[in-house]
Write a structure and sequence with these properties.
21% of the residues lie in helices and 30% in strands. By secondary structure, it is an alpha+beta fold. The termini are far apart. The relative contact order is 0.19.
């Protein structure tokens, strides 16, 4: 019995390593989008990178043309985020405060997360969910923890899209590594 269990474990380990290797190869084959960019957005035909039409009766309704399946939808023009489940069911929507650097409209994947850090603007933040970078500036969602530890420098380029702490908690639970992030105008 022990030798058959060891064989199963070895087989599962080999499959996991092969999968990780393939994903690494796939990521490196894509290559960077440009200087300082870590993720080039892709825009499948089902997702509109242009200004999505809004429901005038319900401005917080999920915009059309954002794709399907579980995803985070971020509107640059409306400073709003939607956490979307399977079947286009909106789990939560909320307003955000963008940094000084915006990502291009397109489809990204969550690439890294951090529990607590200090933002480039000197503000302690938590539940950081990163999905790309632009010109060396990391772009991601985060929630302010407290007052700035230093005076913000007006010349510092920031990519932090700030949420309230309750919204940051919801994002943290929803936007795990690999979750799609759809950025629209």
């Amino acid at each position: 019995m022990a030798s058959s269990s060891a064989g199963i474990v070895a087989g599962l380990t080999a499959a996991a390593l092969a999968t990780v290797g393939f994903l690494g190869w796939q990521a490196s084959a894509r290559g960077p989008a440009g200087p300082g960019d870590t993720a080039k957005p892709t825009v499948p035909p089902a997702v509109s990178a242009s200004k999505a039409p809004r429901d005038k009766k319900n401005p917080t309704a999920l915009p059309d043309g954002t794709g399907s399946g579980p995803r985070v939808v971020y509107s640059l023009d409306d400073d709003r985020v939607w956490l979307v489940e399977e079947g286009n069911d909106v789990r939560r929507t909320f307003r955000v405060e963008p940094g000084s650097v915006d990502p291009a409209p397109g489809v990204y994947m969550v690439t890294s997360r951090s529990g607590e850090v200090t933002g480039t603007d000197g503000i302690p933040v938590e539940h950081v969910v990163r999905f790309t970078s632009v010109g060396g500036v990391a772009i991601g969602f985060s929630a302010r923890v407290g007052p700035p530890t230093q005076a913000p420098d007006d010349g510092v380029r920031t990519g932090g899209v700030r949420e309230s702490r309750p919204d940051g908690d919801a994002m943290w639970r929803f936007a795990t590594i690999g979750r799609r992030v759809v950025v629209i105008r």
